[in-house]
Amino acid sequence: MGMSGDHDGNVVAVEIYSSETGVWIHRNNGWGCIIRTLDIWRSVFFKGMLHLITMDDVVAVVDVEGNSWRTIPMPETFVDPYYGVDDGFIDVSQDCLCFVNTDRDDLYKLSVWVLEDYSSDQWTLKHTVSHLHLFGTDKQHFGYDDKVVSIHPKRNIIFLVSLNDGIFISYEMDSREVHYICELGDILTRHYLPYVPLYSESLANEARREGIPPPDDNLTDDLLVEVLSRVPYKTLCGLKCVCWRWRRVISHPDSDHRLPRYHLHGAIAGFFDHYAAPSSSTPRSTSFPVVNHATRQWVVLPESARSDKRQIAYLGFDPAVSSSHFHVFELVEKNPANADGEADDGELDATINALEIYSSETGVWSHKDIGWGHQIGVLDDWRSVFFNGMLHLITMGYVVAVVDVEGNSWRTIPMPQTLDDPDCNVDDGFVDLSQGRLYFVNTDRYDLYNSLSVWVLQDYSSDQWTLKHTVSHLHLFGRRRKDFGHDY
What we know:
Residues 219-259 form the F-box domain. The chain is mainly beta. The chain has helices spanning 81-84, 131-135, 202-209, 221-228, 233-239, 244-251, 265-269, 422-425, 473-477; strands at 2-5, 11-17, 24-28, 43-46, 49-53, 58-63, 69-73, 89-93, 96-102, 109-115, 124-130, 146-151, 157-162, 167-172, 177-183, 275-276, 289-292, 297-300, 311-316, 327-335, 349-359, 364-369, 376-377, 384-387, 390-394, 399-404, 410-414, 430-434, 437-444, 447-457, 466-472.
């Protein structure tokens, strides 16, 4: 529907297009009063009628033929209709027309009204909530500092966004719980089209009656899984809402090994104590705990041969291979600290001369002398990543040290030239896995305190890193001089 207005902004006519006839029809204003609107205001289509918020303290209603016209007085949610009416929000929830605006007695509260009897003009106050409860500040003005995006069609849930910082939240009226959803960023110019899952076969059945099969009808479950296996995990979760069949196929245990699953190594590493020092007063009788989020199981590893010394260990886990089996790599230092922080014999020496490797399949530790061919030193808080069945570990020797789960294959990959002085900042490097490739992040070699470089090992069999991206600290943090690893 298109609104035609005069020079004062009053709606004088409505142009209505029908997809059935393919033509526009003209209808003069049949509301019997002056109606004014702004193009940014919310409308909702309900019971074959367009419902439109207006500047005149009414909801203007017209049918698709332009034959039935009605105005519904807005609920009294404010003292001055010109102060808050343009910020009202109208929607349909649980088969009733709903209206949201500032509370009539408190500018910094929100009121939700419902038209329970559609044939009447009597709104019922359903709920009231303060902006302090929603956004943590009591000086929010609805429509200027925040706005409603949608009301859930089947539940008492409102979706809102803060216009100041782009925070998108949901609010459950029954429990009064606020849930953070995401940060939308620049939202001042955005318009929203709510999407709600429809678990109904009625549309599909109607299409079948018309002789139009659903697009995926010709796909077997096996082919459907093959298609769905190519989408990211987060997208896959959303696709469960398409229809009952897709939900069944995605959730079926037989699809587990073929569809993308949440990458668990980061979550498990968060519950893996990779550093342990023995107590001087109480002997340690346990070893490293490992928790698996997927199976909700945890295990305490048996003591290794180095349980009386400071221990630095890293987890090796690949959910694509197994959701339950893992390895733990314990670094054996040449002369590590004891419970008192001192070496038992002479000077402290953090050089790695062996590995203890634990396998969850065998349940035992195996000892392996290092095979890197030269001395390797690490600090206990440095980053590692498990990739291609190998542990990749940042070292003090300006290389990424690599070893497999059996302790049979050893390799060193020279770090990319991100620094003029390799001993200056190497301990602040970061290694990780992205898009099936090894990545390394550190300060830019030509701009030590002002820029960050991201490198990728395109060919894993080579030692040649490719510079993927460079970004300034000024762009990241709003200030020029920052030291990677120390300031952030």
